[in-house]
Amino acid sequence: MRLDGKVVLIAGASGALGQSVTPTVAQVGAVVVAVDRHPTPSVHHQIVVSADATDEAAVTRLVEEVNRKTGPIDVLMNLIGGFAMGQVSETDTVLWHRMFAMNATPAFVLSKAALPHMLERRTGRIIHVAARVAVEPFPGAAAYIAAKAALVAFIRALSLEIAGSGVTVNGVLPATMDTAANRKAMPDADTSKWVKPASIAELLILLAAEEARHINGTLISIG
Hints:
The protein is of the alpha/beta class. Helices cover 40% and strands 17% of the residues.
């Protein structure tokens, strides 16, 4: 699959997943706008931008600027997320709101900003990375799981709103990812069963490609 000349905005580009996805998307011909609160230096075909994806006004300005300077955004890939353990009895509202701010709010803010331009052109791809635990929960991380489940519900609801418009929205639900942070947190785990970030990158490219133009409202588990 190729994304030659497509403008792809990747939110969370400097995270563990983003560090794999961003260069891979650039390698298939896309013009990448790499967005992160703490961005890493750019590589070929990357335009690096610092932004807080929970700030609606800032994201709206960012999208307007990208559309004006780089060209219309063809694909939005939202990789933003954050994890925290905690039984319900041990979870305070600060952690609860933080999990939703990290895992659900950016999807809403980014989608809302990108949609008007995509709908006007009657083309566009929006892809959000959630987590398999949103549909297959485990005990001990209720706030995180609830936030990811909210993201899944948002994807489904938005896909119904934009059905038939030429714009699609889909979700990717990885199992445990093979990242340095996860290896450190779970040193005794069988990492052979973990999903590689490179595999997620390939799936994101597939959903962003022209060949996937009729796929809308799909949640794909991986790993």
